[in-house]
Write a structure and sequence with these properties.
Elements (H helix, E strand, L loop, with lengths): L1 E9 L4 H12 L9 E8 L10 E7 L2 H9 L1 H10 L3 E10 L1
Antiparallel strand pairs: 1-3, 1-4, 2-3
Length: about 100
């Protein structure tokens, strides 16, 4: 299994609303994208300035499935929700 961990720092007007919309939309993707086994999104609610806005944890069977998920039009539509607000992105993919 490939675990796909992504953190986003969003900045700009409406970033909290867009993060919530992104969460709702991404969490619907396992029913749409066969290659995505599961996904979980958590929004930061800590008070510290400079924290990341959200973290995503997706699980795919292998790297080919991760690539298919990443390129899927439904996934790209979700990313478009927050893309203009992304100030930073960090990603780690690991096998378990």
């Amino acid at each position: 299994m490939i675990h796909h961990i992504v953190m986003f720092r969003l900045e700009g007007c409406g970033s909290d609303l867009k993060a919530a919309e992104f969460k709702t939309r991404i969490e619907q993707l396992p029913a749409i994208i066969d290659e995505l086994d599961s996904v979980e999104v958590r929004l930061n609610d800590g008070p510290a300035a400079g924290n990341w806005t959200l973290v995503l944890h997706g699980v795919c069977a292998d790297n080919a499935a991760l690539e298919a998920y990443s390129a899927h039009p439904a996934h790209l539509e979700c990313v478009a929700v927050i893309k203009p607000l992304i100030a930073a992105r960090a990603c780690v993919d690991y096998t378990d």
